[in-house]
Amino acid sequence: MADRNKTRSKIYERLNNPELRCKTGCGFYGNPAWRGYCSVCYREVYLKQQRARAASHSREDALAGGSQNLQTEVAHEEEEAGKLKFNKFEEKKKFQLESKKQSVKKLFKKSPGRSSLPDGIPAANFTLSPVEPQKSATSFREFLKTLKKPAAQDVNDKCKLFVQRILNNPSLKVEEQSEMAMSEHLQSHQLFQNQPQEVIDRTLDGVEKYIMTKLYRVVFCPASTDDEATDLANQKRMRSFNWITPQHLDAAINPDSDKVQQLIEDAQQDLVEINTKRAPQDKLACVVRCCKNIYKIIHLSTPAGGAVSADDFLPCLIYIVLKANPTMLHSNVQYISRFCNPNKLVMGEAGYYFTNLCCALSFIEKLDAQALSMSQEEFNRNMYGDESDGTRAKPNLKQNPLSHSNLEVLGTLRERQVKLKEDALVLQEQMTEFRNNIVKEVDAILAGVTSKGDKYLKSTLTTM
Amino acid sequence: MAARGTAQRPNGAVQGKICQFKLVLLGESAVGKSSLVLRFVKGQFHEYQESTIGAAFLTQTVCLDDTTVKFEIWDTAGQERYHSLAPMYYRGAQAAIVVYDITNQDTFGRAKTWVKELQRQASPNIVIALAGNKADLSSKRMVEYEDAQSYSEDNGLLFMETSAKTAMNVNDIFLAIAKKLPKSDNASAGPAVGRQPRGVDLRETNEPHQGGCCK
Questions:
Q1: Phi and psi (nearest 5°) for B67?
Q2: What is the pLDDT of residues A17-54, one digit of tens each?
Q3: Do B92 and A343 touch (CB under 8 A)?
Q4: CA-to-CA distance for A228 and A234, rounded, in angstroms?
Q5: How many of the other CB atoms lie within 10 Å of CB of A327?
Q6: Residue A428: enclosing H or E segment and its boundaries?
Q7: How much is the pTM?
């Protein structure tokens, strides 16, 4: 009893400790998790604090989030600019450059070539090696380097700003995004008005690559479109066309030659690779590579050789697309046509091949019996007929020796499987019989030796 | 649209300007579309050089007085089954050559449908030329010169009978197209000239209000 009283008094002591009460003195107990307040008081204090914080941050928020009405806020921002820059741009170097930028920009616009720039930027940086597919990786790296130089600061800032704007407006429709991307192209043009065309092109390429790589996650196959559904539907469709041969499409492909087979695989690989690249021009480069391989395929397949015309080229491309069945082809095509430099898509070699790819895709999407110049029944048979349905499949077999032989192989395989199963059952029976026999034998032996065994057991137990 | 030439200096003279044009080739398969182009671009017929495996896309430059006209020639598949894809090719083309085979009446009929389609669907100021190819096979002629000539006059087409084999009229038809194409600034100048940026104001970029570039 005494013990219990002691502990009780201890508890009372603790409960009466004023430090446990709410800080505001409302009489209720506080809680360290609520910073010593009781729940009611803590809520009041918390709300008050939040309001105060919101008020002090509202300006900053307006700056960060108000990208839509940028121009109206420019004046207001200029007041804050110095402070903000210091907070947000951690690189001191950049901050210092801001002041120089205006003058640099002026020079930039006036000077016909960049060699005369004051910061000693070698002109070689902008007159790089010609942009060939193989060199594009290195030249892009060079471009990024150049982007860091003071003279390119303006472009650099613009790119970053643009990327930021898109990322801050996730609700924008794809069409609007592509619209913005297009205007970005044009805007860069104006800045470089006095530069030779070649330099503009190269810079544009770099800008495009930089921006699109940054934005890829957001703008590729966006949820606001039905790209993904179309992709899946297309993929399923292409899989169901696996019976189409080059002959169906008038494609001059000689599948017997090993060299041709190798090239077909290469071309398919190129198509599949489209999905692994990020920048539109890199994706285009994959398309061009694939098409060059197709030229070689046709050239090797036609006995007379000679130059390859579109009459042969397009069917072969369609066949390769069907065979490769590249993942997300529709999304990729949409992405390129939305965000690639429009000049490249309507004109130029890459534009031609891209148009061909679009044609191939659209042909496959609409592919029907008429397009393959066969009857509807025959088409349906190929599409939906399966080997178990003998009545429908038989006429088909005559035309397709490969599937015929395949069916034969399947038939023998099935027979062998049935036999294997029977044999397995027999084996199982034998095994159970064997087991039973063994059990019987062991039992018999045990019964015969019980008396001896007992004696033995007893002797061993006593010795222990 | 969107043809690209050299960037023009605002104060520079217009002399020596380059105009780039997209030209599509239409016509049934085996009328000799690609032979015609190969003859024009490489000067060859039925010859093969390693560099000319692909004849589906070729470029050739023609000089006209003080301008250089660069043709970008897009071949199309002529088979009937690919007919519906043609609009994708002639989108944005400034010129088209519709080719038929003078020894085959059907190809002339197809050529007429191509012309009709181009006039209806292609860009309104497209220059269309009709080429009756295989003129060297006049003994097997099935399409009369006068028929094609009067049809072309009625429809405002350039018309020539050509032979890729003998090179007859091949360069001439391309030259005639080059002469007929508009070479004013708005058709041929680079995109840098005469276009205003839409939506993005240059001033904005002077204030890096977004910050956060180091994220």
A1: -115, 150
A2: 767 777 777 877 777 777 778 888 888 888 888 888 77
A3: no
A4: 10
A5: 14
A6: helix A401-463
A7: 0.61
Contact between residue A347 and residue B188 where contact means Cβ atoms under 8 Å apart: no
Between A64 and B31, whose confidence is greater? Answer: B31
* A337 in contact with B, Cβ within 8 Å: no
A18/chain B closest Cα distance in angstroms: 48
The whole-angstrom separation of Cα A295 and Cα A264 is 11
Length of chain B: 215
Amino acid at B188: S
d(CA A3, CA A369): 97
Instruction: List, in order, residues 6 or more apart from A252 with CB less than 8 Å away.
Output: A246, A298, A301, A302, A312, A315, A316
Q: By the CB < 8 Å criterion, does A23 face chain B?
A: no
In this prediction, residue B128 carries a pLDDT of 95
What is the tens place of the pLDDT at every residue in A303-346? Answer: 766 678 888 899 999 999 998 999 889 989 888 888 777 777 88
Strand order of the sheet with strand B18-26?
B57-64, B67-75, B18-26, B95-101, B127-133, B158-161
Distance CA A67, CA A212 (A): 20
Q: What is the DSSP letter of A172?
A: -
Tell if the CB–CB gap between B81 and A194 is shorter than 8 Å: no
Grade residue A288 by pLDDT with cuts at 50, 70 and 90: very high
Q: One-letter amino acid identity for A380?
A: N
Distance CA A269, CA B144 (A): 50
Render pLDDT for A100-117 as a digit per residue (tens, 0 to 9).
333 333 333 333 333 333
**Segment A241-251 mean pLDDT:** 84
Q: What angle do CA A275, A277, A281 make, to 5 degrees?
A: 115
B152-183 tens-digit pLDDT:
999 999 999 999 889 999 999 999 999 999 87
DSSP of A4-45: HHHHHHHHHHHHH-GGGB-TT-SSSB--GGGTT--HHHHHHH
Q: Inform me whether the pLDDT recorded for B54 exceeds 90.
A: no
Considering only CB atoms, which chain A residues are within 8 Å of B53?
295-296, 299, 307-308
Tokens of A160: 């970053």
Query: Which residue intervals of A242-328 are DSSP H helices?
Result: 258-273, 280-301, 310-324
On chain B, the residues whose CB falls within 8 A of the CB of A302 are none
Phi-psi sector, A305: left (phi>0), alpha (psi -120 to 50), beta = left
Beta bridge partner(s), residue B64: B67
Backbone angles phi, psi at B13, to 5 degrees: -80, 160
Of the candidates B88, B24, B82, the one whose C-alpha atom is nearest the C-alpha of residue A317 is B82
Count of CB pairs separated by less than 8 Å, A with B: 195
**B residues 80-139 closer than 8 Å to A (CB):** 81-82, 84-85, 88-89, 91-92
What are the pLDDT digits (tens) for A109-147? 333 333 333 333 333 333 333 333 344 456 666 666 666
Selecting from A70, A84, A160 the residue whose C-beta is nearest the C-beta of B204 gives A70
In the chain, the amino acid numbered A346 is V
* Interface probe, candidates B9, B38, B82, chain A, greatest A C-beta count within 10 A: B82
Two tokens, residue A187: 């805007």
ipTM: 0.79
For A353-405, give the DSSP string.
HHHHHHHHHHHHHT--TGGGT--HHHHHHHHH--TT-HHHHHHHHHH-HHHHH
- Beta-carbon separation of B89 and A355 below 8 A: yes
- Residues 3..42 of B with a Cβ closer than 8 Å to A: which? 3-4, 6-7, 9-10, 20, 22, 25, 29-30, 33-34, 38
Nearest by CB to B197, from A91, A157, A190: name it: A190
Rg (CA), chain B: 21
